[in-house]
Amino acid sequence: MKVAVVGCGNISANHFHALSGIKDAEIAATVDIKRERAETKASGTGAAVFTDFDEMLGAVKPDCVHIATPHYLHTPMAVKALESGANVFLEKPCSVSLDEINALINAQTKSGKQLGVCFQNRYNKCVRRAKEIIDGGSLGPVRAARAFVTWSRGGDYYGDDWHGTADKECGGVLINQSIHTVDLLLYLCGDCEALEAHVSNDHLKGVIEVEDTASVRMELDGGRIALLYATTAYSLNSEVMIELTFDDAVLRLEGERLYKISDGSYELLVDKQDKEFVGRDYWGHSHKLIIEDFYSCLRNGRPFSIDAREGGRAAKVVAASYLSSALNERVEVK
């Protein structure tokens, strides 16, 4: 399979690392508006180098396109790639608005091709185990959930031409860092029907145009509530915590550990594993697993589980959260 990687910034390292271990994936093209970055990533692969996405699609005709560009380009590029006959593996967020989500779903359906959204933390061992327990029903249904993302981003993080901008990043901590946690809440607890959210800039006023802090109260089916607090105004990058409450027990995910809490006692169900990873530890260690699974689906004709519709669930919650904050009122998630 001929593969093109579009966007050769920091996160692309995870994609190149995973692709290097997939025998039938040939990196045929790298694309970046900064040619030197595309050349660096192409080194040793034999890949053709491009600065123009449309030119690459016409010249290379890739079987699969990895998109790791600034957020505002994700859906437009994915739609073009699908229309060209390529499969697409897409960094989060898959879309930055409800209209884009619908356009992406329609493009995937019409093309008949596979699209995967990179929510790699679903592949963490602790998440898989929690999902098995929930689906197995031994603890009963999830009654409530809460999650905390407390990370640190200073002004230097926003030194490029798109992070922290309203028109290119299209949001801050909610659409960038904590959308993974939104996805896990939906994956483990079910759909969000309505929400009320508030976003603010608590420590980088005058530096960024978007929020560094967000709180979201999600209404799940049956009147259940999931709460999310996320900020990049903390002093360090602490482990993400997700807590799921059942009738007689609690499951708590802390980073890559999973605890069962019952009658005041803590049982460690999954410990953090020493894994090879690329980039920053708090990105998680499962990029390789999700990309390998995506290519297994392409190879075997099996539908990939996190497609445009499934990956768009978190994007819908994020879009609704921004609307709720702007209106200062509860909104339905449609």
Describe this structure in words.
The chain is α/β, with parallel strands linked by helices and 334 residues long. The protein folds into two domains: 119 residues, NAD(P)-binding Rossmann-like Domain (Rossmann fold); 186 residues, Dihydrodipicolinate Reductase, domain 2 (2-Layer Sandwich), CATH 3.30.360.10. The protein contains nine helices and 15 strands. It has a nine-stranded mixed beta sheet with strand order 14-13-12-11-7-10-9-8-15. A six-stranded parallel beta sheet has the order 3-2-1-4-5-6, with helices on both faces. Strand 13 and strand 14 form a beta hairpin. The protein is globular. The model has no long low-confidence stretch (mean pLDDT 96).
Label this structure with key terms.
six-stranded parallel sheet, 9 helices, 24% strand, 2 domains, 15 strands, Dihydrodipicolinate Reductase, domain 2, globular, Rossmann fold, 334 residues, alpha/beta
